[in-house]
Specification:
It holds the Pfam family LOR. It comes from Acorus calamus (Sweet flag). The chain has helices at residues 7-12, 27-45; strands at 2-4, 16-18. It is an alpha+beta fold and 50 residues long. Helix content is 50%, strand content 12%.
Amino acid sequence: MKRKYTVTNVLMGRDTFGVTVYPNIDYAFVVALVVILDEINRDRMGDDDI
């Protein structure tokens, strides 16, 4: 998983991730993992909006 930083994403507060998913892998599970890892990372950095 790689986070992509662009000027637009930084200014608008959006995150973009690139993920390689191989055949026979559950895409919904991968998306859930990315969301969970992002939330954990935001909590550690103090960037959580909630």
